[in-house]
Structure formats: structure tokens, C-alpha cells
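Thread: "does anyone have the structure for this chain?"

Original post by V.I.:
We have the sequence but no experimental structure in hand. Need at least a predicted one for the grant figures.
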Amino acid sequence: MLLDTYGRTATDLRVSLTDRCNLRCTYCMPEEGLSWLDKPELLTDDEIVRLIGIAVGLLGVKDVRFTGGEPLLRRGLTGIVARCAALEPRPRLSLTTNGVGLARTAAALQAAGLDRVNVSLDSTDHDVFERITRRRRLDDVLAGLAAAKEAGLTPVKVNAVLMRGLNDGEAPSLLAWAIDHGYELRFIEQMPLDAQHGWQREEMITAGEILASLRTRFTLTPEETERRGSAPAERWTVDGGPHRVGVIASVTRPFCRACDRTRLTADGQVRNCLFAREESDLRGALRSGADDEEIAELWRVAMWGKKAGSGLDDPAFLQPQRPMSAIGG
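Reply from O.Q.:
Generated one for you, C-alpha cells below.
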């Protein structure tokens, strides 16, 4: 098992398949993009599947989520999903995507064994979407969401980040839109993971502000705390149900005490926390001939050193060197 010194067990693995992305969201990277990893640095499809197999077979991982960058840019994605769906015990498989390429891939991914998707979408207004992403691709994202629902990749969850002066007034309209289309909406506080290191706490739209905005139009009833478990989102039923909305308050309401995640970057580094400043190299062990148990032990050691919390509430907090696009959501 992937235990740490605070008694937490990691059973949820986030796997970044690429650091590349076809959008340029203002809270993630500069308009010109970033210097991408060279292909030899990236894990191969075989290496990814082997590491996931070790995590599932030897370390107790039950949930695997593929992330990026934008994971739909990984050419071998469908094959990776199919091979992971054949593992014993079979993990639950999900994908976090910007949705741009989902319309043409949703059915194939479902057939390969993908269980569900999360799609990042911060506005349903074409002009606002373009200001945030620096691309005019909203129609592609909307088509991708519809295709995911049609393919049965449900529940289809939509992740939205609100930013002051851009889309901070859209919370109620986003929720109404999600309800109309049968998607489950989750708002995420903007986190200090941008490549530009321009995040400012006072500019962030807090969970409290999001909820206050939603309550101008909807009645929200909190779900029981015990139902949340290790899930990062606090959830509310909307107008008595059955629809729900979630808020992930990573900054103002940290959930580190129940964290059950371990992360693998596209170049084979284990991160025991989204905000960690240290990594453990599994790629080097793979390529030097280590066997599965040796790699599993390296992973155990990496997780054993996990800190009690993210440190976001510490005035001395420093952002990790990697931005979110190179870590994986």
C-alpha cells in the first residue's frame, strides 16, 4: 500500500500523459506556450501501462485518471486505456480534458474501457471563453461534452474556474446550463500553479464568494460530510435535488487530511502532493532494469515522505517549479 506517516493511503493515481496543450488558459500558461518536454523524456505507452500495473497490482491503487496537459493529444491514448482496463484488479478509469478533441474520441474511449470524463469549461460565452483560453474553440468543447454524454461516459463532470473581471459573474448561469444539459458542475478555486507565477490570493474567487453567488438564484443544501470521503469537492443538492453542484476549495478549505492521491508526471516522476517541490524518479529505475517490486518500493518511499498539508496557508509558501500543465490535474 502507498502509506504516509500521517496514516493516509493513496488509492487514486493521476497520470499525466503529456505536458502539451492546445489551449492557452490565462491561469495556466502564457500565450506563447511553454517549452515542452522532448519525446525521449516522456514515458512510452509500455512504460505508462507497466507503472499503472504496478500501482494497481502491488500498491492498492483503485482509481486511475489520465490528465495532461491535454491527454487527448497523446496518440496512444485509446490503446493505453484498453490495456489498463484489462488489468487485474480492474481500476476505475477516468479522464480530465479540455474537451476540444472529445467529439471525435469519446465513443472509442468508452469502447476501450474509459468509465467517465471531467471537462474543463470556464464559460459558455464565446467571447469570454476566447479571452480565457486565447482560442475560439467553445463549439468544439460543447460538442465534446455532448459526445461524452452520448457515449455513456457518465456522470459527465464540468470543472470551472472563476476569475475576477473575466467570468466571476457567471456562476449561476453556468449552473443553470449544466442542469439543463445533465452535467455535474464543480467550481475550483484558482490555485497557484500557473507557469507565470502571477497568482495572487487577494484576486482569487473564494468558495464563499462562489456559494454566495449561486444562492442568489438557487437553494443549496449541503450533503452529509461523511458522503464526501476523500473527494476534494464539497457538494450541495440544488433546489432539493436531484441535481448537485460541487466546490473544490483547495486554498480556503484544504482537504489534505483525507487526501488519497499519488501523481505520475509524463516524464515518470512521482509527486506525493500537487504542490510538492520534490519528486521521485521512476523513469530512471524503469530504464535501468529495475523489477516491479523494486519500482513499487521506490513509490512507497516517495509517498511515505508526504507532508501533512499543501502549505498554502503558510506565508512562506512557494509554488512548485512545474506548472499545472506539467504536473497533471
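V.I.: this helps a lot. The CA atoms of residues 78 and 109 lie 6 Å apart.
O.Q.: and The chain has one domain: 12-327.
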